[in-house]
Amino acid sequence: MALPVPPPARVFAELLPTPAPAPASAPAGGGAPPAPSGREVHVSGSAELSAGPDRARVSLRLGSRKGAAGAARSSVSRRLEYIAQSARQRGVTEENMTVTEDFSRVEDTYQMEAEVCIIFSDFGKMQNVCNLLIEKLGTSVTISPPHFYHTPEAVDTLRRQVCVAAVGNTRRKAQEVCRLFGQSLGKPLLIREEETKEWGGHIDNHLSNSPDSLTLQERIQNATAYASCRVFAVFEIKGKENRRNKLL
């Protein structure tokens, strides 16, 4: 996916002479407080960040068709217990495993089908579990390709990080403008988020549009989320830059 070109940064600075402070009565024990200079630097800047998926869902399907109901149930139950035990031994909690079972009569036989959905936050453990089950259960279990997604918490974190990064970039640009004119940057007077964009990736859903031919890394890349943010800020210009601080 081609990434959008970020908008050019806009920098506006007002470097007018500092007006003389208005007369004011001196407070007890000191001189009059300094009046605001009225000089400002206006800066707009942007940032773009990405975040890989933090969850993966794997579905395992298995079944048995026997002439006796008990035999069909027993065949599936043994494999279900092995799958659950293997996952637990590798740190998967019960709350991240969901089992659904379907028992039916087909002509003069009994059919037992089951599906296990396991959610992983550690993709290395996911590969270890899947490789073990393929090795031990073979064709008696069908493992679907992993579906990668973002939790709402991960998406919120990306949004906050890209906004903070945009504000940081904007402040650094304002500092560079002030240094160009030998001035010192003051406190922020206004910070406004002007535009945010998000693309790519997806949050939790049960359907994946990725074809089965994709590799694991390609699936992770397809599920990576991107966000951009543009902010506008106004900073006070304090005055001449302190030469000692400039050398530091």
Automatic annotation (TrEMBL):
Keywords: Cytoplasm, Nucleus. One of its GO terms (biological process) is immune response. Residues 18-52 are annotated as: Disordered. It comes from the Eukaryota. It is found in: Cytoplasm; Nucleus. One of its GO terms (cellular component) is nucleus. Belongs to the IRAK1BP1 family. This is IKBP1 protein. It comes from Phaetusa simplex.
